[in-house]
Amino acid sequence: MRRDPSTLPGRPCSLAAALEVVGDRWALLAVREVAYGNHQFSQIARNTGAPRDRLAARLKDLVAAGVLTKGPGRLDGYHLTDAGRDLGTTMRALLTWGDRWAVTTPPVRLTHHDHELAAKTVCATCGEDVHAADVGREVLVPGWTQAGPGNG
Asked: Where on the tree of life does the source sit, at the highest rank (predicted)?
């Protein structure tokens, strides 16, 4: 479910639009569970700890937004769409941040083949490692600058 970013309050921004879809705590945790292979509502509820009514609403929203699909039968469960699978990189980044800044001891270790995963961002165009100092922003919305609306 795509939307025009100018319809959101504040700065028109794809991050704000993404948070409208997955910014609720239970949304990303539900996506995590489906990515782990837990497709049934009862599994997702147990493993997220979400209140069942809130989880049902969030799953419905994620299906409407095209992040998950739901089979027609009660036992068909929830599955990731391409949009849901694309959240994997974002969720790994949040997990890495959480390991460093939010928990005393990481409860999960991501592995790649026979070693711990140490991911990095590489520019697909030039192949160089991406460093924050090298990333620029070009504001494409008329009437907005990096400082905000108008001339800043």
From this structure: Bacteria
